[in-house]
Amino acid sequence: MTNSNDKPSSNENHGGLSILAEGLGVSIRFAGEEKHLLKDVDFLIEPGEFICILGPSGAGKTTLVSAMLGQRNATHGKIRIAGRDPVTEFRRLRGLVGYVPQQDICPGALPCRRAFNYAALIRLPADTTSNQLHQAIDQAMDDVGISHLQYTPIDNLSGGEKKRCSLATEVLSSPGLLLVDEATSSLDPASEARIMDLLAKRARSGMTVVCVTHHLDNVDRADKLIILAKGRVVWIGTQTEALQHFGVSRLSDVYLLLEDQPIEQWAEKWVTYRASLKAGKVEGQLEQPKGMTTLRLHSVANEHPIGQVKQFSTLVSRGFESLLRDRVNLAVTIFLPILLALAVFVGFRDTNYSAPFMMTRNLENSEKDVIADLWGDIRKAIAPADASTLEDKTAIMFRVFLDNHPALMEHLKADHTERIIKDAIAEKIPLAPDREIISPAGTHKLLFVINISIAILGVLTGVKEIVKERPMWLLERRHGLAVLAYSLSKLTIVGVVLFVQVGLFSGVMEMADALRVTLGGQGPAELYRRGPLIEFGFNWLSAVGCALLGMIVSALIQTIEQGFLAVPLLIVPHLLLGARILPIRGGLLDVLAKTFSPVYWAHRGVSSEGDGVPYVWQCYGPYNDAMWIPLVGILLQIAVAFLVLTLVIKYRSKGIQS
């Protein structure tokens, strides 16, 4: 009997946990009807047993594992892990239940030992010493037979070796129960056999092991099989007994029987068989576990939980080390902004940033009279087809001149000429020359293209950041990883990466512009920009805001491929709401831009419309150009987006309590 006040070492085995299911049912509402995913499931798994769960697709295997993990509420009956409800008493089981999903759960760029070091910092108690941590890592690697691979990057391992790494990660804390869900489905026969041998070895050491598998060649390693079909139990027992029960010579033939014959028939046959066992006073399936010790269900992980600051620092360190060790990703991170900057520079190489532009004003009253009289004479001059019919001397003089300039004659005869003159006299349009200014077109276009390029960098960085390690962070949530620590770590990593990328982009643009000016060319008009440092700041904040939007999508999707397909959907709204293609002068667009588009605030922060800029180039209409307004606007967007990201991550890990 173990005293609950004893404090085990970090790698001490907790002892196997029992699993008891009585009348377990899980159902959902579908198309107005109740659909049973599991129905009347009864079984008892003894501490230290190795159990394989088999069944055709849709049998309810993964649903059963989810119920064991506390991710699925039982709608009928109950399931207990060592007597505890995995849903309501999840915290008391933390550190005692390990889970290996089908996907690999280790950061591929890291060597095995480094990956295990970070995993141990998340999983083992906060008071674990450095020696205890390294002992736990050595023991886990030795247990799964990968000690010789400790300095090999995980990406360089075979499929079977990667799966051993996933197993080693979960046995670091020596859980009392290890759940393995289809973890061998993609392995070759030899690798699958080795993994099954490892699981059998863990069970012999006292750990309870439950493995869901489609492979049938190596299930003889298991102590018992649980066979499900359409949510019903049709067999619990050894492989030999299963073959006798179904009257077949191969387990694969059982699947054919379950497909060809009514499931109710086999479920009823199992109930009858189990009743005969009890009637014959043979050990029943639902007796209390034999020889089960009193377990430390408070768990060492709960005695000394890891604080969020340590979780945050561990995740940040792992993220940066993974980035620096992944040479391909690192090269893309560095060279992508440089190439984008060079592309923008080349695209604007012939832009005349100081092109003159004549501003106009409304006609004064005296000018209106002159224009009206002059236009009357011109109309008389161009009206007849034959100039000989003209009698007015002024009209004749105009006609003689225009006959020598046929192109001008055609312009004056055009319908729009009459309309322009009338609108100018009515003060509907400014027509009189006023003053000459530097055209803002080139500078504003350049600044906006830079804004959009930076937004693309942000979205590309964010949209892959969460989904690429989805199995890993979901699993670490089971070990107490706080959502806030995780989301803050991602914001920090992305923020630093984008700080470097935006710095590289801005540096290349500034050096290229300086070189062009040195060689006698032109740089962007200073009148219409805020300056390089301010532009860098706003563009970096815009990139972070866009990355957060990308991370929200990344947390919602299942694969990186889906994320990259979403990139155009994330970029196009910024093109439209950034205020340079569609002027934002109020109304619904104004609300949407200020609420959802970091590019809007970034462009407003880096550009200046200046005094007297023509209305056609005024993106915002009358507005306050104080710099603090776009700064506050973009910071608020970042804060709200971060809050949404945190809530989405919490939602995506619902059922996993931390």
C-alpha Rg, in Å? 37 Å
Helix percent reads 40-55%
Shape: elongated
Number of separate structural domains: 3
DSSP helical segment count:
24
CATH superfamily of the largest domain: P-loop containing nucleotide triphosphate hydrolases
Description:
By secondary structure, the protein is α/β, with parallel strands linked by helices. The chain has 3 domains: 19-302, 3-Layer(aba) Sandwich (Rossmann fold), CATH 3.40.50.300; 308-354 and 440-652, no CATH class; 363-429, no CATH class. Helix content is 53%, strand content 11%. The strands form 3 sheets. Strands 5-6-7-3-8-9 form a 6-stranded mixed sheet, with helices on both faces. Helix 3 crosses helix 4 (130-144), helix 19 (483-518) crosses helix 24 and helix 23 (598-606) packs antiparallel against helix 24. The radius of gyration is 37 Å and the shape is elongated. The two termini are 29 Å apart.
List descriptors.
24 helices, alpha/beta, 11 strands, 658 residues, Rossmann fold
Give a summary of the structure in a few sentences.
The protein is 53% helix and 11% strand. The protein is α/β, with parallel strands linked by helices and 658 residues long. Strand 1 and strand 2 form a beta hairpin.
Write the layout of secondary structure elements.
Blueprint: E1 19-30, E2 33-45, E3 50-54, H1 61-69, E4 76-81, H2 90-93, E5 97-100, H3 112-123, H4 130-144, H5 159-171, E6 177-181, H6 189-204, E7 208-212, E8 224-229, E9 232-237, H7 239-246, H8 251-260, H9 263-279, H10 300-303, H11 308-325, H12 327-347, E10 356-361, H13 365-382, H14 393-403, H15 406-413, H16 415-425, E11 432-438, H17 441-463, H18 470-478, H19 483-518, H20 532-556, H21 560-577, H22 587-596, H23 598-606, H24 628-652
Parallel strand pairs: 3-7, 3-8, 5-6, 6-7
Antiparallel strand pairs: 1-2, 1-4, 8-9, 10-11
Helix pairs in contact: 3-4, 3-11, 4-5, 5-6, 11-19, 12-17, 12-19, 13-14, 17-19, 17-20, 17-21, 17-23, 19-20, 19-24, 20-21, 20-23, 20-24, 22-23, 23-24
